[in-house]
Specification:
SAM-dependent_MTases_sf, Rossmann fold, alpha/beta, methyltransferase, Methyltransf_11, S-adenosylmethionine-dependent methyltransferase activity, EC 2.1.1.197, 9 helices, 24% strand
Length: 252
């Protein structure tokens, strides 16, 4: 993805360390969806070596521990501060760094990631790198977001990530993997006010989209006024999420 400032991404997620787990309800639903589709697509649960990309506070990590039998679990995240959430995990090793830049553990059997790959600068290169780290027949299970994601924010501010459409995602995955599971949906959590929408995004680090916005009092007032066109009949304000789940097996 062009013009993605990883330092800004790291900085914003660092600020959300204390608030993320409580606010990330959509990401929690996505983690559950990921493992449900994985079970349906593979029925497998024994993986000697697993890597989770973007482990954060452990929303997906907790479910990995419950769902799989493994010998070693590698937990990788751009933000080193997340490591304290994982100190007591058995057979787990935390790695701090940018997955696109650092060497990955090899001979992996399964790689999982929840709501992370939309932050990549070069997704095709990353997918090739992940395939190289997997054993023959190894599995990749990820969630990400589609083009409808946070469209209210993009419409009002002109700021946001450029999310790939489902067809393009499947095309990129098919270069290195056989796609064996795919699902997408739209989620619309509701908030009492437009400012509550912004607070939610800040709490989950998602304000790391695009360049930094300076939220002056005037800009906040304009944002709140503009957001009223999305107001629902019950007076609530929706925020659209477009989660996509992909399960894939490394090509023979």
């Amino acid at each position: 993805m062009e013009n993605l400032d990883k330092n800004l991404v790291r900085s914003r997620f660092r600020r959300s360390v204390e608030s993320y787990d409580h606010a990330a309800e959509v990401q929690r639903l996505m983690a559950e969806e990921l493992l449900e589709l994985f079970r349906l697509a593979t029925g497998e649960r024994d993986f000697p070596r697993i890597l989770e990309l973007g482990c954060g506070s452990g929303i997906l990590t907790d479910r990995i521990e419950q769902s799989f039998d493994y010998g070693k679990l590698y937990l990788l995240d751009l933000v080193e501060e997340w490591s304290r959430f994982h100190r007591n995990r058995e057979r787990a090793e935390f790695i701090a760094g940018d997955v696109e830049r650092i060497p990955l553990p090899g001979s992996l059997d399964l790689i999982l990631s929840n709501a992370v790959i939309q932050w990549m600068s070069d997704l095709p290169a990353l997918l090739k790198k992940l395939a190289g780290a997997l054993n023959p027949g190894g599995l990749l299970a990820v969630t990400t977001f589609g083009p409808e994601n946070l469209y209210e924010i993009a419409d009002l501010t002109g700021s946001g990530l450029r999310y790939l459409d489902p067809g393009r995602l499947q095309q990129l995955f098919s270069r290195e993997f056989d796609l064996i599971g795919f699902r997408q949906e739209l989620l619309k959590p509701r908030f009492d006010t437009p400012l509550a929408v912004l607070k939610h995004l800040k709490a989950t680090g998602v304000t790391a989209t695009g360049g930094p916005l300076r939220w002056t009092r005037k800009r906040l007032e304009e944002f709140s006024a503009g957001y009223r066109r999305f107001q629902l009949g019950d007076g609530k304000f929706p925020l659209t999420y477009h989660p996509i789940t992909l399960i894939a097996r490394k090509k023979a």
